[in-house]
């Protein structure tokens, strides 16, 4: 069933309740968390500025944020300084990316304008998107573009990053007869089969691998990963991981996090991931931000809990975490 298999021992501390259990892996690329809440009618008021001044908006503090799509993680983000108390900001700043030109030809430049209010909240004002494949690199003139509302895909939270095919099963304590077949505590088996339609960050494809943690534990004891599959946006991993030390009650408070990364010499780029759990927002009575499973992920985890010793197959979309 697999050409590589990992098995590690994992023990939950069910009695020690510490805020540290909400911590994340240190090499996790952080996705932008800038607020996107808009005031009602804001875009309508923006259009009105072109016809006449509206004095109450003269207190705007604006900045510009850029992304090289499809990479919306930390490595692709840049932003200007904030220009306060003006509706006609002048930035005169250069935002630099160190990237091969061939890679640029398969990417888009997204520029968005934001208002930063005195309370630190950020409101979306408008954006443009430029296809770099058709950009005239000999152009040295200034170009003006009208700001547009957020794209329909961004408003609806559509963020296609590929889909992962996997199977998972739970082996309860004492369910397999006498030792050595009978584990002293329960086990969770995770079979990562393949991923399809990964983001193509380079013309040659991506060199991808999958990381796995069982949260709240982000230590080396919990960390497992697959081998790297090179130059393929549809990698086949066929990798099985086994975590023991799982008591039945732990299934309500734990979360299996699987993330896909593009491997490079200096750094790894986050491509997408899934979190399998009940999505309650709580772990052992403490509020945590990683217990945020989608409806599909929750249903997949619940099916595993109800079908002991049976492989549950699933096809789950990767998402930003």
TrEMBL record:
Ranges for domain C2: 27-145, 160-291
Alphabetic keyword roster: Cell membrane, Exocytosis, Membrane, Repeat
Biased composition (Low complexity): 23-33
Swiss-Prot/TrEMBL GO biological process terms: exocytosis
InterPro entries (UniProt xref): C2_dom, C2_domain_sf, SYTL1-5_C2B
Keyword Repeat: yes
Places the protein is found: Cell membrane
GO MF annotation list: neurexin family protein binding
Stored PROSITE patterns: C2 (PS50004)
Segments for region (Disordered): 13-33
Record GO cellular component, one term: plasma membrane
PANTHER family attached to this UniProt entry: BITESIZE, ISOFORM I, SYNAPTOTAGMIN LIKE 2
Protein name, entry field: Synaptotagmin-like protein 2
